[in-house]
Queue: 2 jobs
Job 1
Amino acid sequence: MRTASPAAVSSPPATSQVPDAQGRFGDFGGRYVPETLVRALEELAVEYEKSLTDPAFKAELDELLRDFVGRESPLYHARRLSERCGGAQIYFKREDTNHTGAHKINNTLGQCLLTKRMGKTRVIAETGAGQHGVATATACAHFGLPCVVYMGEEDIRRQSPNVFAMKLLGAEVRPVTTGSRTLRDAINEAMRDWMASVETTHYILGSVVGPHPFPRIVRDYQSVIGRETIDQCRERLGRLPNAVVACVGGGSNAAGMFYPFVDHPEVELVGVEAGGRSDKPGDHASPLTYGQPGVLHGSFSYVMQDDDGQTCDVHSMSAGLDYPGVGPEHSYWKDSGRVRYTSCRDTTAMEAFDACAHSEGIMPALETSHAVAMAMEMAAERPKDDVIVVCLSGRGDKDAMEIARLKGVNYG
Amino acid sequence: MSAIPDLFAKLRAEKRKALMPFVTAGDPDLEFTAAVLQEVVARGASLCEVGIPYSDPIADGPVIQASYTRALNAKIKLAAILDMLGKTCPVLGAPAVTMVSYAIIYRHGIERYCDDVASRGVAGLIVPDLPVEESPILAKVCGERGLSLIQLVTPTTPRDRALRICETSTGFVYYVSVAGITGERTQLPADLIDNVGWLREQTPLPLCIGFGISQPEHVKLLAPVADGLIVGSAIVKRVAEAAEKPRDEVLKSVGDYVAQLIAALG
């Protein structure tokens, strides 16, 4: 693994008091979108703000998270994996046990409630790994909202179980054939749909990316992960963990896990990007490690661009991390030094998948396997009474066929 | 220094309207882009919009998006586009503006981008992903260099916001005819004329209408309420035929089309 260069010591200390009214996390974030979308984004920001002080809204979301999603999700001591590493104790925050098998449902239920609140009657979404697509299709089925999911053709190929699931849930999956045919292109197509349908349609963006207020809304809905983790650690261990690790594509599970910890400086926060095949441009998806600040999909953040500002093609074996940009709050945390970002190669993540499956009986998603790999590396170097919590962001069933292909196994 | 305001002052004095064709830089190559720009001006276009290809253009429909992809696949770089503009703009006989994503401007450097296009004779910028809230720095840099920064008003823009946009726009105001992406449409919104009419009473700035316009009937309908009309995808689609057809034939087809629209301007 390669660690990103250390943050400048002169940066102001990170706090949780972001974003500001313009959607800025320090220098990052903002709203770089066509004028056509501005009114809808302003309306969304206003309605979201109102929903925060509406007890009925909160009660409805809390009930859904408990009875429909199955929260709280367990904090699980991965004893055999910890023994195998020979050092610190590894715990999993089990977002894979949520209904639909990943953290994504935390956000889609909240945004579906917002959709109803705004009186909008149709939902669109993008998806990479398909987890956000499934979670959106599920929430829309629950609320009786028609749902269209944009998905790159390459991702449709490598995540076919989720494509079928979305269709079974009544969503329409629209293949995206432009560009690299992955998550980035799916976001472009969803934005184009929204340009024409904005009066009646809400776009449920699935990560902490995009124009203000999406990065904040998605972070807030995902922050239930970190809040529960803090409570569970205090109750079970009598203290906070030494370190918390999460994978970062757009960065929604990491933002939700890290945000409640940001004001606890004693807890080390580590974000793991997709290191892909190598550190050469085009071989990885690690904008925080190798990229530069720039504009993509409506916000200012680290991004993989060429010297003309054209977005570069990136690579990760995991569809959910195969994205050239990252949420603006992660850029803020990187530059302020509050979170350390590293990247993990495809092969290392695959080894971690195997170790986790064999030692714990848990198949993590390929995305999540990047975080597991980093936690294993850290655990091996740290004392036995240290605690490292991994955000086990999703289950790996969706990846079974792709893993077989990557390993050259002929099954079924 | 004030090519666009001067142009519209002249057109208004002569009671004429502007046609503003959009051309993607580098599709299929920059030599042909220069030839198309010269052809449309020779056929009566009053100003030109040059699209700088971008990898992720969310405001653009399939036709312009595909032209950007072709240009980028042909490895058209900004430096080469600037060279072409430097050779073409000073002798074009009509002002040209660049339609360019803020991603490209930011990466190139805000001041450097404005210096580079101003020194090539470009008259202004349209930045489709930079709403007014994010535009003060670029507006200042453009102002210092005599570049117009043309802002957009859309059907989803509330009226009080439209007034604020008109206060910050320079050169003209780009009125987007439809909520949606660029591309030809057979029908334009029923309330378009009323909305543009309202805006005309609020601002002394010229108003140009774009998005969806492709037919002489559109031009006849909208010319009375606008100072100019912008035609993009319908031109780009014709230019794209240069991949298969002889170039002089394609140039003539683009020129004939532009002449037909200008005749409809009245």
Job 2
Amino acid sequence: MSECAVKKVTEITTDEVEEISKWIDTEEYKEKNFARTALVINPAHACQPLGAQMVAYGFEETLPFVDLNAFTKNAKNDGLIPEDFPTPYANTPSFTGTHIHGYDAMLKSILAYLSEGKKAETDNGKINIIPGFDGNVGNLREYKRILSAFGIEGTVLADISDTLDKEFVGEAATLSLPIGVKKTDELLLKLSELSGKPVPAELVAERGHAVDAMTDAHQYLHNKKFALFGDPDYLLGLVSFLLEMGARPWHVLCSRATKKFTKEMQALLDSNPYGAGCTVYVNKDLWHMRSLLVTDPVDMMIGDTHGKFAARAAGIPLLRVGFPIIDRVNLHRTPIVGYTGAISLLTQIANKFLDIKDDTCEDRFFEMMR
Amino acid sequence: MSDLKKPAEGYSMEDTSQMLEDTLSIYTDKARAKREPHMSANDPDDSGCAIRSNRKTVPGVMSARGCAYAGAKGVVWGPIRDMVHVSHGPVGCGFYSWGTRRNLTSGTVGVDNFSPMMFTSDFQEHDIVYGGDRKLEKLCDEAHELFPLAKGISILSECPVGLIGDDINASAKQASAKLNMPVVPCNCEGFRGVSQSLGHHISNDTIRDYIIGTREFDGPESPYDIALIGDYNIGGDIWAAVKVLEEIGLNVKAQWTGDGQIEHIAATHKVKLNLIHCYRSMNYMCKVMEEKYGIPWLEFNFFGPTKIKESLRAIGECFDDTIKANVEKVIARYDAEMQAVIDEYRPRLEGKKVMVFVGGLRPRHTIGAYEDLGMEVVAAGYEFAHTDDYDRTYPEMAKGTLVFDDASEIELEKWVEHMKPDLVASGIKEKYVFQKSGIPFRQMHSWDYSGPYHAYEGFEIFARDIDMAINSPTWGLVKSPF
């Protein structure tokens, strides 16, 4: 190649940056962005092994390995690990499903392995709670507190906040994540039904506190628009809570979900006038979310840490809920489930809006009371 | 190297060797035979002393290592800000490495700065069965359309891509011709090699094959044109380093690769000197540029005022009297400032012992900074080093201290128990093991979400952080009164 054929280093100009900065906030860009079929940008989901690890960490003295059946069989044959040493195994390929599927597959495998050959003809009267993929240890502790308030003997399975006993499966009920009053009511009614015990006075009083707090603070959330992203269970719970508050879920984005989820979410939105106008997006990522936020603005976004760039681009706050939260301290210790969780969510959301008002208003509107 | 360090008080060849013997006794014979050569009591005057390194990790132990993909995406390619870096394969590899290495970049995110973003082909079962080549070509088109100011695309293969035999090189070639910009295929599948180290090497080779020599700097050349190699701008490190290099009168024409720009990197063959901070990850390209373009290179160390001073003088020696004079002026200007930092923190840190277990250059390069604060590094290990890294480490450590390679969690626990360091400086996988057992810890891959630690600006922050890690009043609460 001759000397003159080599191109010179060019610099991106400030004019170019300005032009493209404006362009990526337009409807036209949004359309191009939503037309993507191959490139995924800033996804809001991880892969199966993460979920499987989360389960394994919930069983004390368990080492999670990405392992193979033949491998463990050989290891046992060679006497490297004892024959009776439990080695439950789950296929968790990274190219199908998400961390949620990995969680379910691993938990199922562990339970099947531990109960293999043991028939559950009668149940043992205990209740197991399978919390699903949840990095919030505060939530897990809250479930245990609720069980204990009922006086129910029970176990939170794959409890990363504590340990595990072996149990066998009897009757099963599937409930949404108990976020907000209604979903918590459903959980307590189900526990009451399964155990034959009344809802304890302690929890009835807590419900009163939550409702009291929600009515007192309704004005700070009423009609505020929210964008949400995250795992299906979390989204159903959070949307239910926002609707209870008279807030408006506006963009709900789940990066990997089934049709069943879309149907259930739509039904929930349709059941409440504050659900009107909300759009549910599945198989979309956080670069799509960015386009939504800048073309059709909302007041706040709710999701994990990965949403912070989109929130910043749109100039709105991000309420950190979900997994992972890697830029704020201690949120994983504060439950968002149950009645106490509802109070906590409400407090965080309302005070965030109030902080923004105090931080940004003109002096003449800076008031003692809010 | 200058004179040998004094043996550390309380540590001896015999004691450390016995500790290693006890540690190895936990292993099966086979595992023991593999691990034994990777750890040793340091004997700097024994030239035969050699740690075995760059070998496959013993299966089943908890290793701190990363993979070739991690070395390519997280270290070499990822920090280049004006390119779209595609994690090609299933979603996880890109997701877990998204924003976690802290290689900061300038510019507007999504406009002319893409490092803080995560791009993936998010392989599904269909792609595994039928191959992902077409998807790859399509996504290059989409990236170009949505990010018109991006100056190139890197394609970083994850394990399944190599396993199913996709030809990313052909796809990249096609995309590059069509889009008229560099589209670089990097075959850095995680299963290649024994650690992230091979990922660095593979990435260096792709820069050699696809990038270097394809551009020239606009404007006149100067005898003071240099490139800064192997600084990834963790917490702003490269900005602190460039500041000092400019103050002594040098022009930093290209940054490899912290806050890097691909066209500047492409023109690096036109500089007069390559200054290399992280020898492990980028010595390859320094050697290539030396052989092919005759560019000399120099290792330097910008941790702590003593080493900064030594390094600045060594850099000055490569240039004329103007630069040499500037070096002395800069050293004089910062001396008082640095002494103030030392005066503030050294009394609280004097005599404290440190165990360091990190990657790249830091196990040896940070020793001087601790010593400036009156501390002593009594154990130093690397995750993915090679023989030449250890050769550079023995003389920096006192006799009888511990030098080790690719330690497992259980080994670290045994050593910490025995050596009782006042601070463990290691990675995120080690952090909570030690912190939750009441031992002060700093996450020294990412500067524990602080930084910069490089150059004069960085030393003050380093000193503050080390002081608070060791002297936080929270440690006083650990023991319950009941």
